[in-house]
Specification:
741 residues; alpha/beta; seven-stranded parallel beta sheet
Length: 741
Amino acid sequence: MSAETSNDKDNQSKTKRRLIFLLTLAINFVVVGYIAFRELRNDATAVKRIPLSDLKFGFLGVAIALFFVAMLADYCKYRHMLITSEGKDRKKAAFETAVLGKYYDNITPFGAGGQPFQMLSLRRHKFSAGTCGCLPVCGFLTQQLAFVLIAAVVFILNRHVMDDSPVIKVGAYVGLFMYAIVPVAIILFAIFPHALAKLVGGFTRFLGKIHILKDGKASAEKVIATIGEYTEALRVMKRRPHFFFRLMVYSVIYQAAILSIPFFSLMAFGGNLPWWEVFSMVVYIYSAITIVPTPGNSGAAEGSFYAVFSSLSGGYLFWAMIVWRILVYYSWLVTGIITMTNIAVAKKKKKKEVPKDRVPNVGVFNDLFYPSVDGVVRTVDAYGRHLKEMGSDCCLVCPHEGETADDYSYPVIRTPSVKPGFSVFHIPLPFLGKKGRAYFKEHSVDVLHVHSPFFVGWIALRLGKKYNIPVVSTFHSKYYDDVIHYTHSKFLANVMKNYLVEFYSRVDAVYACSKGTAETLRSYGFHNKIGVLENGIEPFPEKDEEKLEREIREQYKIPQDKPVLLFVGQQIWHKNMRLVLDCVKQLKDRGEDFVLMAAGEGADEKKIRHYAKNIGVLDRVQFLGKIADPRQVHGLYLCSDLLFFPSIYDNAPLVLREAALAGIPALLTEGSNSAEPVTDGVNGYTAPANTEEMTAKLQMILKDPNRKTVGEEARRTIPITWAKVLESVVEEYRNIELEEY
C-alpha cells in the first residue's frame, strides 16, 4: 500500500468520524430543542422558574462528583489491568484508554464502539499484542456484567416502578437481554465452543440466504473470531479470580455512580423522589435505550428521561435533564477531545543524560540498616562504599534506629521511624525528615535504587516523580513466604503478592539477585522485564589466615579434632532451621562425631534453642549469637569444614559467597534459588530438603576425600567481587529509559 493511499484512507476515516460526531450533536440538539419547546409551550416560565437562590448546589456538587468517581473507577480498572498483564504502572496509558473508550462509545451506534480505538491507543503505547487485544475486551465484559447485575437486582426488587411506562418497561427487558447476550454467549462458547460455532454459523448462513446479511459465511467467521477473542479474555480472568473480582468492583462503582447522577440532578432543581425510585427508573431507561442504534444512544436517552419524569411538576425537569446529559454524555466527549489534543501535541519526556565520564550519583534506599544486620543491609552498604570509591556522590536512605554514629564513607539519611512492641526492627515512616529534604534539594541525583518495596520505597517513588529521576528496584526476598510464616494466611499472602506487583510496576527498571529470584517475582504475577544483578563479595584483606583461625577457635571454643559444620544467618524457622537441627539429631544418633556452629540472631532464636534442647542436641550445637565483625565471620569460615545452609527462603545468600571465598564448600537444598551457582560435587553440594537424604549427604561429605578440592573450586567459580558487580550496576544505570508518552 502506497503512502498516498494510506493517507487517503486516514483522511476518509477522519472525515467519517467528524460526520458521526456532527450527527450525534444534531440528534441531541433536535431532541433537547423539542423538549425545551414543549416546556415553553406548556408554560412560558417553565425553564426560568428556578432562581439561583433556590438551586440546591450541594446536590449539584454531588452529581458532578459522581461523574469524577465514575471516571476514576474506569481509570483504576484499566490501570489495574495494565499492571497485571504487563507488570508496568502506566497511568497515562490507563487514563487515555478509559477516556477514549467512553468517547468513541458515545459517538458510535448502539453506544458500544470504543474497543477498537482502545486497542489502537494501547498499541501506540507499545504494549504487547495480547494486552492490546485482551484488555479492552475484559473492560467491556466486566462493564456489561456489572450493569446486568445491577439491572437484575432492580428488576426483581422494584419491578413495579415502571408500570406507568409499559413501552419503556418492555424495552428494558429486551435491552437487558441484549446486554446479557454477549457475556452469556462468551461463557457458552468457552464451555461448548464447537456446538456454539455450528449454531452461529448456521444462523448467519440462514440470514445470508434470505438476503438480510450480504455474506453469511464471512459474517459467521467474523462473529466466531470476535467471540473467540472475548473467550480468551474470559480465560485470563478465570485464571486470576482476584483480578476478575477487582475489575467487577470497579465496574459496579462506575455503573452505580453514573446511574445515581439523575437523582442528584433532579434534587438540585427541586425534585423530591427517593433515591431508590429514581435509580430504578434510570436503570430501566438505560436498559431500554440499548436497542436504539444512534451514536451513544443519542436522542433516545433524553426522550426516555423526559418521558419517564414528565409527570413531575415544578418546571425543573428540563434543566435537570440538561445537567444529567452534560455529566454522563458531553463531559466524556469534552474529556475525549482534550485527551486526543494532548496526544497530538505530546512529546516524550526523557531523563537527563549522565555524562559518560561521570559515574551516576545514586540514592540507595532500604527499610533496614546497621546496627540491624541481614544480607540486604550488607548489600546496600557495599553499594554505598563502592559507588563512593568509583566517584559517585551517593547516599543511603534508611530508618532511624536510635543513637547511631553513622560513620560511613557515604552520607546516611535517617528517616523518622517507630519501634512497635511486636517488632525487633524500627519501622520507617513514609516521609523524609528535614535533613533528607535538604539533601535531595541541594544535590543532583541521577538514579534512585530501592532495595525494599515498602516505606522508603514510596519515598523514592515520590522523589523520582518530583525531580524526574528514574527509580530502579532490586527484588531480594520471598515476601510471600514471610507472610505465610508469620500469619499462616494465604489470603494475606496473596494480598502481599498483589501489593508487590503493583509496587514493582511503578519503577522504571526491576532487577533480581539471581535468575531463580526473578522467577519467584514472576510467580507473584509480575510480567515485565526483570534484569539480574548478582550479589558480590569483599576480598578479605587478612594476610595471616592461620593466625586468625587460631584466634577464632580459641575465642569460640571450636574443636580442632572433629568436623565443624557452620550455619550463618538469621535464627528464623523459615531458613529451614528445623531441618538443620533434625539432621544434627540424626547424625548424632548414627554415631558421627562433629559440632555445628550457628551464628546469627533472629525472631525465632529462643524457640530454636528450645527445640535443640528438647531433641537433645545442645552438646553438638553452639549458638554464637550475632557476630557483626566481618573479620570474625571470615575466621568462622576458616574454622569450618562445611557451610550447612539448606534454606529455601534465601535467594542469593552472601554466606555462600563468603564461604567460597574462604575455600569452604556448602551444602544447599537441591533446586533452591540459593543453589543456583552450585554444581553438586563440583563446587559445592546439594540434596533434597528432607531429613533422611540431607543427613545421608552430610555423612558422605564429611568422609569425602575431595572436600577440599570442591572448596577450592567454589573459591574459583562462585565469588564475584563487589567492585566488579558495581561496574555492571553503573552500566545498567546509564541504560535506564525514562519515557512518558
